[in-house]
Amino acid sequence: MTRFGIIGGGLMGHGIAVALAQAGHHVAVFDADPATLASLDERIARALERCAMPPAGAGPVTARITAAKTLSDMVVGVDAVLEAVPERLDVKQQVLDALEAKIPAVTPVWSNTSVLSLTEVGKGMRHPQRLVGVHWWNPPYVMPLVEVAPGAETDRRFVQEACDLLTGMGRTTVRLHRDVPGFIGNRLQFALVREALHLLEQDVCDPVTIDTVMRASLGLRWSSVGPMENADFIGLDLTRDILVSLAPHLSAAVTFPALDKPLDAGHRGRASGSGLLTWPPERGEEVAERLENGIRRNLVEP
């Protein structure tokens, strides 16, 4: 594969385009929103600046990414297509239906869904055997992990092909045995988020304290030793004893009052200026920069 089409040029779509172009692939990006497409070049340039890429290196990368005005333009000559449209099942199914009418039956289709069942995403496809879940992490041009999973009808050769290409790009590629909503990373991440919200609802602490605890303990540990290795390290007997004692007190909630309250008041987080925390205008950019710098620090070998 040398040429990719990407449907959806937003947060993930443009970032994946940068990651693919950095690896030498050519990418055509289509988005149904003209404003999103019009800002593509600017956002790609900003991403490359954050990668600390000098202009001499950024030029060739930028040249490998083009904006396609229509879906038909995007699919010309592509070896594979990746959808990175909003995380709504109906939207993804509609996009895949339109896409399949324009590409050969053998062209691989990758879905960047992060929480939906890939099998459900592929329902109604003419050729669901070519659909592969390829979940990149944000920002894709910095985060090394890509999770790859089959749907119920996926031909495993398409999964292997995706894994081989991503590994060849230097990505940390993990292959799931089967389709599961949320892949691995988001299931782990949002189990922690659910417990954090539970602590707020029980008035144990405030949001800043939760972030402080995470960044000064688990965030430092988990970049070096994962939870399975740590369970063995401290001993499975101790791990079981802790779980037996603690598990009855952990949240199993499926509703989230700590989120409902600010949302009902119109507080959505960064985009609205407040949420669980306050967000003055400059904070979003500061957090994005801190996040990427922190990831890069953790990627540097000691």
TrEMBL record:
One of its GO terms (molecular function) is NAD+ binding. It holds the Pfam family 3HCDH. Pathway: Lipid metabolism; butanoate metabolism. One of its GO terms (biological process) is fatty acid beta-oxidation. The keyword Oxidoreductase applies. Keywords: Oxidoreductase. InterPro entries: 3-OHacyl-CoA_DH, 3-OHacyl-CoA_DH_CS, 3-OHacyl-CoA_DH_NAD-bd, 3HC_DH_C, 6-PGluconate_DH-like_C_sf, 6PGD_dom2, NAD(P)-bd_dom_sf. This is 3-hydroxyacyl-CoA dehydrogenase family protein. It comes from Streptomyces alboniger.
